[in-house]
Amino acid sequence: MTTAPSGSVVVGVDQSAGARAALEWAAAEAQRRAAALRIACSWNSLDHELPEDYQQLMQEPAQQATAGFLSETATELRARYPDLDIGTVTMAETPAEGLIALAGAADLLVVGRRGLNTLLTVLLGSVSQQVVAHSPVPVVVVPETPAPAAPEAPVVVGVAREVTEPLAFAFAEAELRGAPLIAVRSWALANPYVVASPEAVTEIEADEDRELRSLVDVVHRRHPSVEVGTRVEFATAEAALIEAAKGAGLVVLGRHRRHMRYGLPLGRVPHRVLHLSDLPVVVVPN
C-alpha cells in the first residue's frame, strides 16, 4: 500500500455513527490546515484467514462494496468542501493494519469511538485502540457525539516530565485555531496513607509549577501568539485533565506506551482519558 500524501489528514471510516463523527472532524481539520484529506476503509475486516477458495469468492464483492461506499462518502463531502483535496483508499489489510501503514507520511490520523454500553462506560473499540497504540503519527479519537465547543475553545494538554511532543502538537494546534492553551500537571503523594503538612503541599505544588512552566516556556517561544495558562492539581492525571477540559475544544496527551509483555498497550492515563472524555482526544507518540 502507498502512504498518504505528506502532511495530509487520514481518517478511517465504516458505516458506524462514530466513524461519521470522525469524518466530520477530519474534514474540518484538513480544511483548517489546508491539507489533503484521505478517507480510508478496509474491505477485509476478518481477524482470521479463510481458506483460499473462500477468499477469492468474497474478495471482489467486498472490494466493490467498499469502493462504492467510499465513492459516495467522498462525493457527499466534496459538495460541502469544494476546495478540499479529498481522496479515497480501499485497504486490503485489516482496518488497524491498513490505517497504520497508510498514515506513515501523514500529519494526523483520525478514528471514531463507539458510544456507551449498558454500564455507561464508553467503548474504545479494538481498531481505535490498536491504532492509538501503534501509529507513527498523532491519532485523534473522536467520540460518537462530541461535546459542543466553540472554534476558539481552549486546547488542553497534559504535560508529563521531560516529554515535549504533546506540548509541541498542542501549541501548533492552538495557534492554528486562534485558541488559548491550558497546560496541566498533576501530582500525588508517594504514599497515599501519609498526610502532608500544608507547608509540604505548598512546596510540592511550587516545584511542580516551576517545572511545568519551564517546559511550557521552551515551546511557547516558537508560538508566541498563543495565550497560555497552567494548572497544577493534586489529583490523578486523568482526573486533572478531564476537569481542565470542561469547556475546551480538544485534549492532547502523550501515548506513554508500555513496553511490557502483559497489560494494556497504552499507559494508564491515555487509556482512561480516551474512555472518559466527551471531547476529541489527540494521543501523540513520544
Enumerate the strands of the largest sheet in spatial order, edge to edge or round the barrel. Answer: 3-2-1-4-5-10-9-6-7-8
Secondary-structure element string: EHEHEHEHEEHEHEHEHE
Radius of gyration: 20 Å
CATH architecture of the largest domain: 3-Layer(aba) Sandwich
Distance between the termini: 25 Å
Largest sheet: 10 strands, mixed
Provide the β-strand percentage band.
Answer: 15-25%
State the helical fraction: 40-55%
Uncertain ranges: 115-123
Total strands: the figure is: 10
CATH class of the largest domain: Alpha Beta
Gross morphology = elongated
Count of helix runs = 8
Quaternary class: single chain
What structural category arises from helix and sheet content? alpha/beta
**CATH topology description of the largest domain:** Rossmann fold
Keywords:
286 residues; 8 helices; 10-stranded mixed β-sheet; Rossmann fold; alpha/beta; single chain
Q: What's the layout of helices and strands?
A:
Blueprint: E1 9-12, H1 17-33, E2 37-42, H2 52-80, E3 86-91, H3 95-102, E4 108-112, H4 126-134, E5 139-142, E6 155-158, H5 165-177, E7 181-187, H6 198-220, E8 228-234, H7 237-244, E9 250-254, H8 268-276, E10 281-284
Helix pairs in contact: 3-4, 7-8
Family: Belongs to the universal stress protein A family.
Pfam family, one: Usp
Protein name: Nucleotide-binding universal stress protein, UspA family
